[in-house]
Amino acid sequence: MDIFRIEGPVKLSGSVRVNGSKNAALPIMAAALLAPGKSVIKSVPYLLDISVCEELLASLGCKIERKENRDLHIDATTIDNPVGEYDIVRKMRASICILGPLLARCNRVEVSMPGGCAIGDRPVNLHIRGLEALGAKVHLKNGYIIAEAPNGLTGKEIFMGGPFGSTVLGTANVLMAAVLAKGRTVIESAACEPEVSDLANFLNKMGAKISGIGSPHLIIDGVKELHPVEYEVIPDRIEAGTFMAAAAITESELTIEHCQLGDLMAVVEKLREIGVNVEPSGNGCVVSRTGPMKPTDITTQPYPGFPTDLQAQFMSLLALAKGNSFVIEKIFPDRFMHVAELNRMAADLRKEGQIVIVAGVEKLIAAPVMASDLRASAALVLAGMAAEGTTIINRVYHIDRGYEKIEERLNPLGAKIFREKE
Description:
The chain is of the alpha+beta class. The protein is about 30% helix and about 25% strand. The strands form 7 sheets. It has a 4-stranded mixed beta sheet. Strand 20, helix 10 (about 310-320) and strand 21 form a beta-alpha-beta unit. The longest helix has 13 residues, at about 50-60. It is globular and about 65 Å long. The model has no long low-confidence stretch (mean pLDDT about 95).
């Protein structure tokens, strides 16, 4: 098992390009199941989660071909095994995205209950409720979700809100199922995340009829068939936000290329509040900090609010701000496993239910720490670059799920991150 050895503190400088979005690519890969033939998805990053999705699609009968230019060819001409097997699905939460498209195309699907990061309970009841509204019969057996619609699906008005806001993957699943349903489907309280919009744009290019994209009110007029297409996924806003935090925590200046600032306004606003400069530049931005950081309060919310996937990284930042900050987690209330690890590095964090009180410290001090999930591992890398001494991060396979060779991208900028065997 690999570990990271990080020497700090460091200063960063130069340019880094943001890769295509993992969270957009995964449901788009699943959507390719809807059209017999070969679709080409461009700007797909080399990530562990993407590899798991490739393995999953291949197990269904697809032919997968990966090109060196990050193009991914998915030939979904034959789907001869519409079953998401446990041994694959347990590795990644987003595997649930095959449920909707396989049901729409094959009229029957079995998918194991999904696994993924240890960031708290993430039930699939909203996915099931949405598919049942379209006419599917759904039951659970031996840990598998089995959905059937022998006569096809029929459009319906569906409410997708839940106790922690709209569900991104639930919206994606119902959207993919509805495009081949008879009649009109209206999804109320649909997730508005850019990744959902990217999926809808991909489906429309395939021949779907979706309107209201980017809003909580999606209208889908079912079509009889879709066709394979070539499509480029959007830049990864979470990776961009992580690089912004890297510039801020090391008191450096970085140019971040291939970054859509319009998808990150809540993040940019918080950076500016704490004293970090963010200026648009070309197809990206320049992020810099030259003085102390000020405290702030962060509440994670569905888009366009502050993203839960950047909460851990910003907690590393606020650990060095001058004063007390409050971080409130409204999406995944248990997503705080990084708190104890950051405290090992001399941060002063106190968890009170869904709130973490962050008392800023003068400096972080290196320590051996454990990555618990994808975004927590990114937070520890940021902390390691700012801390005094040598930080050892265990279980860095988590970071490989969502950041492509992060050490090879940050080291040319001045980082000292070394991948070693445990």
